[in-house]
């Protein structure tokens, strides 16, 4: 028993670099040796998919606000890619914008990559409005008149000269809005676009933020929600085009299992050593 | 007078923004539209203010030869290089402009790397600090383990009950707690807004009173 306790005592003091190494291996290996774990679609993702699927090809556009920054892009970029593939695949026109200055580059690279993939034409199939500061003021302003907030697109072309924007004045002409964010932007869209203007809003957020948005999902203020890389993987599953979301699921599965094992071992070691210390204390 | 004018303006603007929802008149809508434009302009100045403040802090560090002034110099190089490329480069609008390339090749990997380090620290912290010392801690630990398993495909493979339990945790106890917090925050925000409008809370004007 003493040797077991000794082992656990040493185990509790393990150099954390060994843990870092284990995590690194657990992340990297599944990328080279995919496990191909099946992804089951959950209702919040299905609801967002259905909302996008209902949009009419060539009709009123989808407004996609790419509000994430580079830090959260590994989780959220697979969402934007899958959503854009779905929209373009159905012939849905897309207006892209961002509420975050660092989102400009993320939004532009996402929309241009997706457009190039399907041969979508700028100004006709999609438009990029760019960034405007003042989250709440921007969202409220779009409900009054889009061209008040964005008189020009990101490249300096007046909105009146862009064919896609013809007849698009405010939220009344946009059947669905989706915000992808690693901060509280999705909540802001609910507060300032859904509540005052009745705009249908969908969201995509990082896994840690998903719990914050469940109240809005339950109340119907959000039509659907993609939570973390799992959300992106489920969306990829629905559109039948696997990308980095599904690929990342293998690594995430292994990491989660590893963390749970570490927690169990940590607790086991803690209780064994504590019990031994108590017994030793009683013996003296 | 110096205090009365901003307080009066704040009261009128706050009251207008609150009551305009209930007055469906075109003049009110036009005034609301105008106020939103002013608001956007005002908020844009926050960037200018932030930049000036950043430059001042780092300028003092360089001038006073602070031990970590090297970081300040790197900040100045980054700031002015990006400002220069953004404002003065002829193709700054183009997707493959130097401004965009700098962002995608430098900023994106730096931020993604910093954020990904979290996985390592979370794993290490979970091993060292996540202990079932009390009933509450045990409940938290069990809930965390279920949600972690339920949010990855391996959870579905182990048992169909794990994703179900995850959904229950997210949609029942989590939702109840979140709603309670949100209602509390909402009431707090209303109280603070009223205090500002009525001039009880004056910290936003600066000064000591």
Describe the biggest sheet of chain A?
A: 6 strands, parallel
Tally of domains of chain A: 2
Give average pLDDT of chain B, whole number: 88
Assembly classification: heterodimer
- If interface size is counted as residues with C-beta under 8 Å from the partner's C-beta, which chains form the largest one? A-B, 70 and 57 residues
Counting DSSP H or I runs of 4 or more residues, the number of helices of chain A is 11
Approximate shape of chain B: extended
CATH class of the largest domain in chain A: Alpha Beta
Determine the fraction of residues in helical runs of chain B and give it as a percent range: over 70%
Strand order of the largest sheet of chain A: 3-2-1-4-5-6
Please, could you describe this protein's structure?
The complex is a heterodimer of chains A (284) and B (209). With 284 residues, chain A is of the alpha/beta class. Chain A contains eleven helices and six strands. Chain A has a six-stranded parallel β-sheet, sandwiched between helices. The longest helix of chain A has 40 residues. Chain B has a domain of 88 residues. Chain B has 209 residues and is mostly helical. Helices cover 78% and strands 0% of the residues of chain B. At the A-B interface, α2, α5, α6, α9 and α10 of A face α2, α4, α5, α6 and α7 of B.
Summarize the structure.
The complex is a heterodimer of chains A (284) and B (209). Chain A is of the alpha/beta class and 284 residues long. In chain A, 57% of the residues lie in helices and 11% in strands.
Question: What labels describe this entry?
Answer:
heterodimer, A: Rossmann fold, 6 strands, B: 209 residues, mainly alpha, 78% helix, 0% strand
Topology:
The complex is a heterodimer of chains A (284) and B (209).
Chain A lengths: L1 H11 L3 H17 L10 H11 L8 E5 L6 H17 L4 E5 L4 H16 L7 E6 L3 H10 L1 H4 L26 E6 L3 H13 L3 E5 L1 H12 L6 E3 H12 L4 H40 L1
Parallel strand pairs in A: 1-2, 1-4, 2-3, 4-5, 5-6
Helix pairs in contact in A: 1-11, 2-11, 4-5, 4-10, 6-8, 9-10, 10-11
Chain B lengths: L3 H16 L6 H38 L5 H20 L9 H32 L5 H16 L2 H6 L2 H11 L1 H25 L12
Helix pairs in contact in B: 2-3, 5-7, 7-8
